[in-house]
């Protein structure tokens, strides 16, 4: 744990929120996406790979949601990285996912969610390294990746912006076509209702 914390010492989590700025629901080049870019519905999830509630949702609900809405082209899914729960582990995990490349990003985050118990109960560095190896990264590439100060700063800047501009203070938080659903994990029934409402009303302006 100390090793990971030292690697992300520059990732200070700023908890000041602004009440006067509008949520940025427009998809940007920084976002990691899955699905049809022209889908009528866009769902943004603010989540941390070290957040137990996020892991529960990813492992228990997301597979069915993906099969029903993302794989069928009905929903564009947007993942936004939050540094909650254990910021050091979250940061190292997200850095590893981005270094693996866009085509393997979600493969890494999926493995991270499913390896959360191992990371918290063992050696998180070793768990992360094994995941990096599983997607073709060498040990040297992994170490360089999680020590990249520019990437660390960019990740931290994004998280500060989400807190400040998008008013994110807990994970997971979902935004569907601009509408906030900030009550934590959403059930499939809640998601069905939210997607139906978004499909009927259309995308919010960003």
Strand content: 5-15%
Largest sheet properties: 5 strands, mixed
Measured distance between first and last alpha carbons? 39 Å
Count the domains.
Answer: 1
Number of strands: 5
From the 3D structure, determine the CATH topology.
Glutaredoxin
Structure report:
This protein is an alpha+beta fold and 206 residues long. It has one domain: Glutaredoxin. The chain has ten helices and five strands. It has a five-stranded mixed β-sheet with strand order 1-3-2-4-5. Helix 4 (87-100) runs antiparallel to helix 5 (105-114), helix 4 (87-100) runs parallel beside helix 7 (124-134) and helix 4 (87-100) packs across helix 8 (139-146). The chain is globular. The N and C termini lie far apart (39 Å).
List the helices and strands and how they pair.
Elements: H1 2-7, E1 32-35, E2 41-47, H2 52-60, H3 62-70, E3 75-81, H4 87-100, H5 105-114, H6 116-121, H7 124-134, H8 139-146, H9 149-165, E4 173-176, E5 179-181, H10 188-201
Parallel strand pairs: 2-3
Antiparallel strand pairs: 1-3, 2-4, 4-5
Can you describe this structure in just a few lines?
With 206 residues, this protein is an alpha+beta fold.
Annotation keywords:
206 residues, alpha+beta, Glutaredoxin, five-stranded mixed beta sheet, 5 strands, 50% helix, globular
């Amino acid at each position: 744990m100390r090793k990971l914390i030292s690697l992300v010492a520059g990732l200070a989590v700023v908890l000041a929120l602004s009440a006067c700025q509008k949520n940025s629901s427009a998809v940007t080049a920084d976002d990691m996406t899955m699905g049809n870019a022209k889908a009528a519905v866009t769902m943004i999830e603010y989540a941390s790979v070290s957040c137990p509630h996020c892991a529960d949702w990813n492992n228990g609900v997301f597979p069915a949601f993906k099969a029903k809405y993302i794989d069928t082209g009905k929903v564009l899914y947007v993942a936004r990285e939050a540094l909650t729960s254990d910021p050091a582990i979250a940061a190292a995990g997200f850095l590893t996912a981005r270094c693996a490349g866009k085509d393997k990003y979600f493969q890494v985050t999926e493995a991270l969610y499913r390896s959360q118990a191992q990371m918290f109960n063992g050696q998180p560095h070793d768990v992360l390294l094994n995941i990096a190896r599983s997607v073709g990264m060498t040990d040297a590439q992994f170490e360089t990746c999680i020590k990249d100060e520019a990437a660390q700063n960019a990740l931290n800047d994004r998280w500060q912006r989400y807190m400040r501009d998008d008013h994110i203070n807990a994970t997971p938080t979902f935004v569907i076509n601009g509408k906030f659903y900030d009550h934590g994990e959403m059930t499939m029934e809640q998601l069905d209702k939210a997607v139906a409402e978004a499909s009927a009303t259309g995308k919010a302006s960003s």
